[in-house]
């Protein structure tokens, strides 16, 4: 029987790659629901192609969706659900087997959590949701038996390099188990790896969004340029693999051929390699423990020839240490980091602050907002709102008006 898939964030980069794989494996998977926040014309096109039973959109987009759907003769019309509550309902619907969590940012938290609470197979791209909710999400997964599978290429690589039992019996004590001694989290270094500090002051959003190896949404592209993406991924790895932050080492690897590594106490280092294309980790998470084909070209090592590795430059890219510190502090500190970063990235994209002010703002929020125990999702959401307000005031004060 076909597995039924809901794609939260279908119009985005990960959403599109997921749909590409589903098209190639139409005998095994069917699309139950698609959601999108903007780009209604593209969403209608996807509905025409995939015929989902349900579509999730913001209330404010309803008229536009309806008009375009009638122009493009979308028939039958899918059921339309609205806003966050609609996404939460999709993620927990009994007819859904697999949820692709590919919304960007904190907006994905409640829908992703809803999928976890309903015991789904959850393909986790939306790293911000896990950074914010951490142990709360993992304990829900433990309770319901939800399978939380990493789509982020690094975490998927680590998952592939760990013994299977490591993941299925996650330990509570935040130490590496089963002979694992270290996780090596690779980072491309982003588009500004070789710029100096003064050049970084003047980079533009267009330059920041032009990643050398990956084609991604704007927010994660900027995060890759500041290395905050790697900071968020460090926190993501600690939660997913139940490991303390000092067991995770970040390695700059500009070719993005090795997607991360796991070291063992016997001196072994296991790496997962491949051409940089998100279809590989998505297909892996979709079919695990089986393997399904993708159109990604197999690696030709004679073409690759050379793999470089460097330590990160923490002076130039302070984001990594800010994230490490937030993980060390724990509680709501990662939520403060994430919320302030989301506001800062948007302010940078809007031309209101300089690139180097993104991490200035995050650092200030970590200093100004007290972190406390993340005892419930309500607490996390309340801190998220509070930090966004403070961060917007910071932008008003230190950024330019547009
Ligand atoms: P994107 O910007 O291309 O797509 C984001 C999707 O989320 C879109 O469908 C958009 O409509 C939807 N969305 C945006 N704001 C929303 C809101 N407020 N409510 C509901 N839906 C909303 O982003 P992306 O590059 O596909 O990344 C998605 C997630 O996957 C991010 O968390 C990112 O960090 C993670 N990720 C992406 C890649 C990649 O290669 N693109 C790799 C690893 C992890
Ligand atoms: Mg990644």
Automatic annotation (TrEMBL):
Residue ranges annotated for the 1-deoxy-D-xylulose 5-phosphate reductoisomerase N-terminal domain, each copy included: 5-134
Specify the DXP reductoisomerase C-terminal domain's residue ranges: 273-389
**Which pathway does the database say it acts in?**
Isoprenoid biosynthesis; isopentenyl diphosphate biosynthesis via DXP pathway; isopentenyl diphosphate from 1-deoxy-D-xylulose 5-phosphate: step 1/6
Residue ranges occupied by any 1-deoxy-D-xylulose 5-phosphate reductoisomerase C-terminal domain in the UniProt entry: 148-241
Q: Does the keyword Repressor apply?
A: no
Q: What is its EC number?
A: 1.1.1.267
Q: Per the similarity annotation, which family is this?
A: Belongs to the DXR family.
Q: What is this protein called?
A: 1-deoxy-D-xylulose 5-phosphate reductoisomerase
